[in-house]
From TrEMBL:
Keyword Hydrolase: yes
SUPFAM superfamilies in UniProt: all-alpha NTP pyrophosphatases
Protein name: Nucleotide pyrophosphohydrolase
Any one of the GO BP annotations: nucleoside triphosphate catabolic process
């Protein structure tokens, strides 16, 4: 499947239920934040090692999968409603990050680009 075909499936799903009226950018952004919070909740009290192994946990793995799908669905739907080319936006963001975080300055560091010097 492609991003476009996934967006069409989501748009068709919403249209079949007359939900477009609720799929305003504000509502979709809020739903995206809510679902991101639900994903975050799964990881909230895990140790770093537990979080790295979360997909090996038979209880948490399906929860992570479902919440990530929800986040992705709302992100795709929001991009569609805003007529935003999400793939192009990501390509541009990757290029921007290449400039902000040159490998020779950022390698092995978690600092914000403003703290890298150079």
């Amino acid at each position: 499947m492609t991003i476009g075909s996934l967006q069409k499936s989501l748009a068709d799903f919403a249209a079949e239920r007359d939900w477009e009226q609720f799929h305003t950018p504000k509502n979709l952004a809020m739903a995206l934040a809510g679902e991101s919070g639900e994903l975050l909740e799964i990881f909230q009290w895990l140790t770093p090692d537990q979080s790295s192994a979360v997909m090996d946990d038979p209880v948490r793995a399906p929860q992570v999968r479902e919440e990530m799908a929800d986040v992705f669905a709302y992100l795709l739907r929001l991009a569609d409603v805003l007529d935003l080319d999400l793939e192009q936006a990501l390509v541009e963001k990757i290029e921007t990050n290449h400039r902000k975080y040159p490998a020779h300055l950022a390698r092995g560091r978690a600092d914000k680009y403003t703290q890298l010097g150079g």
